[in-house]
């Protein structure tokens, strides 16, 4: 009897200006309106210092490749990693076609981040996406925005860098809404657009003293809270790593569970995990069909100058339209 | 060895003025002190536009009937729904005895809410309870209070309308404490008393991109957070719909789980679900006996002018007394 | 491929000054830097009014003994409990060696707390640790700090009292970060150091209307949230009681689950529960070995005047060093 407006009904008009908390006076505009959706179903780390692994990138099927300066690189190899990553970007020697080419810096508190940025961002070509790990407070983002502005001051940007942040501590989790709010505010003026949150479960477990299990019951609150915050701010949410990389059945189960919770992608630590993960985070055919029909109906109404419209019995609003477009973009990547 | 003051021991005196967050300077007085408890174990939606279903209401056993303007009514039928609901209230043609007669408006952001209110609230008899769906921010409640004040300015109210709000998005969930705080503040002056929170799981899942399962593990954080916030503000908490309406065993399991989590009722989408749900949310006999004896003891002490008192070894405070009264009211409804 | 810096990698330097929320302007310094770690794996309550049980204390193996004025003591016995506890502290008649000797006062809102404090804290020897139950707001801590300052004004303290607070209501849970922030601020000047949070599950269940089960699924959010907040503020987290004290297998399961979630200890209601609980919350041998080697390496580097250093391939920061020291202290207690 309850209306079956499930796939649709968020009302006619959705406020563009949304405040997440009444205690904040600043408003943020959701900057997702027109941006291109970059799929990051499988997020695979490649140590920037490892030539052999860098050379394998073209053969990898993950849709987000992370050239890593951080945890994947020993302290003694930090210089080498920066230099190799800069070189790869500068010469475009590696073929990233069909993939999100991204770089993970060291954290703000590591003391290594500025040097990472200076070197990597001096390459002729910038990575479309950068990752900032261990963001524990809004101040980290402000620091990062400041450095980025300085380093890119003389470079005209065609597109802002997409920013992926990591939440990896109890402190970070507790202030995640504040971090996101600040990130979206900074996205207005800084050379980045906050785009995704990664749940860094291993550092999080170390921080709270938890013991990881494959079932990850100990992380249920943290994971569901990360999804909730990410989606409240219209960001992608990237789920934890499945450590036991030989157990593909367990990986499949956890991937589908994460997708079912609302995550949009998952970190992987081995190329063998990519296919299972990408399948779990790809839209099923009936959703693709729905999305295609909806977008077509929208464009038809647009041409006729109409506003709100009904589709298959449901009122269509902007979030639904964006959702449909994202599904189509994901589908295009998946099936190509 | 730990004191077995379980059913009792919240101390002698409970502050009436409670602040939920130190960052708020405003205090709210819990307005639950004297109000009558309206049981809403099974909350059943009836589309306002559907004559056949409206006529069946007297035969329904749910203790809260929702005359729906929102998701259960197609856009082309909104006018018809308003008009039929107004007529039903105006003429009192439908027998609601023993039930909470309530109306669900469209959401503030739908652009339809004001017209719903104007029409429905022009009936000679007002519904005791109104539902406001998709409350995403405290501002929605302020808007609603404002409209309600205007529409009811010339009507003397015997009782304020009870207000049931819906949390159905990530944004709403994140600011639910702010929404409730504002709702209770507004309850002082506006023609409503905030009374309950409904967890709108289907829109919530659509908003965060989650996939509903019967076990609802993907909603564990959201459900338990809704209960926690509701109870912190002394509000009823109404649990999610069990979609698979033919599976009564699954419904029973989920109803008992929800009651065990602290929910006070559950949404139902089919009359066949009512009996199972009401049983799960009814107090067991030993609790009824406890409550009856406690209330009797309290009244005895009141007559003698005594304050705090001990009952079956435990100190009795106001929250416990209210809990006991609620149990008796629920029991009275259940067993009549 | 992802760096295996799991047990180590929180970066080079960890800010000492951390702000948990950008909306707070005050900064708190983590006061954990130099304090001695007091293990509280099993937290056992002994009613202060019960001579027989008080006499048994030397035979108990729990590493935290709570002389209780609160839930374990009937209202008519409050005076007796205070007086007996004061006497025990004053004469040091009970051997507490190897145990944390602590006292639980009644809650601030009970109206009994001040008298508890006055009597107990007039003993010649103060308990190293005091427990404050039912802390529902930061104001409770401010009240407590104020009374403590007054009562101890003329006594020079060798060590501040360690303060263990209880979160036992929905309201308390919702403002737990505010409570902790205030507690750490007060710890700078007041005669206490906030040291641990206990999750009081039975009162919490009564408050939210939940029904306790042995599996405690209904408390999953609350437990994981308590751990997250505690660890964000570098506090110990003490898990719920396992009520069914004859079921040692269930106790073991729940203890290991709690330890796996990040709790550092657990409340027990029967001496027979102590061994199982202490085993579950003791560090396994490989962690002890790791910690010993890390601390040795740190001291070696300190002597040579070096700062940040690498250990087994990972960068070592202060939190890790503290974690290692805690493990060693726990291990020392366990194996003695």
Can you identify the CATH class of the largest domain in chain A? Answer: Alpha Beta
Rg calculated over all Cα atoms of chain A: 20 Å
H/E element sequence of chain A: EEEHEHEHEHEHHEHHEHEHHEEH
What global shape of chain A is seen? Answer: globular
CATH superfamily annotation of the largest domain in chain A: Phosphoenolpyruvate-binding domains
Which two chains share the most extensive interface?
Answer: B-C, 41 and 52 residues
Q: What multimeric state do the chains show?
A: homotrimer
- The portion of residues assigned to helices of chain A is 40-55%
DSSP strand tally of chain A: 12
Q: Kindly, what is the distance between the CA atoms of the first and last residues of chain A, rounded to a whole number of angstroms?
A: 41 Å
Mean pLDDT of chain A: 86
Structural class label of chain A: alpha/beta
Task: Give the DSSP E fraction of chain A (strand runs of 2 or more residues).
Answer: 15-25%
Tell me about the largest β-sheet of chain A: 8 strands, parallel, barrel
Number of helices of chain A: 12
The name CATH uses for the topology of the largest domain in chain A is TIM Barrel
**CATH architectural grouping of the largest domain in chain A:** Alpha-Beta Barrel
The total number of structural domains of chain A is 2
Strand order of the largest sheet of chain A: 3-4-5-6-7-8-9-10
Which stretches of chain A are poorly predicted, pLDDT < 50 over at least 5 residues? 1-33
Put the structure in a nutshell.
In chain A, 53% of the residues are buried.
């Amino acid at each position: 009897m309850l209306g079956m407006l499930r796939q649709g009904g968020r009302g006619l008009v959705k406020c563009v200006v949304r405040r997440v908390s009444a205690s904040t006076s600043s408003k943020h505009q959701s900057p997702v309106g027109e941006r291109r959706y970059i799929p990051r179903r499988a997020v695979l780390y490649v140590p920037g210092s490892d030539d052999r692994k860098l050379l394998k990138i073209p053969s990898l099927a993950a849709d987000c490749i992370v050239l890593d300066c951080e945890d994947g690189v020993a302290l003694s190899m930090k210089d080498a990693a920066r230099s190799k990553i800069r070189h790869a970007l500068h010469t475009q020697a590696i073929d990233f076609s069909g993939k999100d080419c991204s770089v993970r810096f060291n954290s703000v508190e590591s003391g290594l981040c500025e040097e990472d940025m200076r070197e990597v961002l001096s390459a002729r070509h910038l990575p479309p996406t950068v990752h900032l790990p261990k963001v524990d407070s809004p101040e980290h983002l402000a620091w990062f925005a400041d450095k980025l502005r300085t380093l890119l001051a003389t470079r005209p940007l065609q597109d802002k860098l997409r920013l992926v942040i990591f939440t990896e501590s109890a402190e970070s989790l507790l202030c995640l809404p504040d971090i996101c709010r600040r990130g979206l505010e900074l996205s207005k003026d800084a050379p980045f657009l906050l785009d995704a949150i990664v749940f860094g479960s291993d550092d999080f477990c170390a921080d709270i003293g938890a013991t990881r299990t494959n079932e990850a019951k100990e992380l249920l609150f943290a994971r569901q809270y990360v999804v909730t915050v990410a989606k409240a701010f219209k960001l992608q949410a990237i789920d934890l790593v499945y450590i036991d990389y030989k157990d593909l059945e367990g990986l499949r189960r956890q991937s589908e569970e994460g997708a079912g919770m609302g995550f949009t992608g998952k970190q992987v630590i081995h190329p063998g995990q990519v296919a299972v993960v990408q399948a779990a985070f790809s839209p099923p055919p009936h959703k693709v069909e729905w999305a295609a029909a909806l977008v077509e109906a929208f464009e038809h109404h647009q041409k006729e100058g109409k506003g709100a419209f009904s589709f298959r019995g449901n009122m269509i609003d902007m979030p639904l339209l964006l959702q449909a477009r994202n599904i189509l973009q994901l589908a295009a990547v998946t099936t190509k």
